[in-house]
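Here is an idea for our session: we take a single protein and study its fold together. Start from the sequence, derive the backbone structure tokens from it, and show both lines together. Once you have written the record down, we can walk along the chain together:
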Amino acid sequence: MGEHSQGQDPLRVVVVDDQPLERAGIALILDSDDSIEVVGEAGSGEDALDAVARQKPDIVLMDVRMPGMGGIEATRRITERDPGVRVIVLTTFDLDEAAFGSLRAGASAFLLKSIRPAALVDAVQTVAAGSAVAAPSLTSKLIEHFLAGNNHPVGPRSDALGRLSPREREIFAAVVRGRSNPEIAEELFLAHSTVKSHVNAIFAKLHLRDRVHAVILGYELGYSPESGSAARRR
């Protein structure tokens, strides 16, 4: 389960939800695993900022809809202020536009609140290891649902492809298609370590936090999930 090795310090987690029972339930599930320690709870976006500043967690589980400062704005402020903190968004409905907004605000993953307890624990460990929680295909569906037919300006990153070498552009396209590093290595006849190095270089050049945000940028740049080519959608 997950990639957190035994002997490491427990992952520090802050749970944010305006419903006390839901918050307590999530905290109980996470605290039941030896690899995780819930170090703080918050019932609003404002309290979440304070909890993160005080507790310095590795992971924040963030509800989207809360009175006052909502989860999207809280996520944006946390990831801007503490880039090392990874935020997992909790949403009630699949293909929820608020969840997509949270990803754009800097969240590393999204989960449905109906997730099984064991899967929640695994998701926290997976995100802490730097990977996306949702399957790439689900991530792509979410992104395509909200970008299709909408003109989302790319802004200063519109020249992003010019920063990449031809090989890096090829690997970036594969990431946008939802391919894992082993799959990319097999497709391009490269060593796994070589692909990993290229992916790390791509993330550094494009200022990306993880694969979820690579997919988002790929869609903003007009990449086709089927072909991986950068053809601007209508």
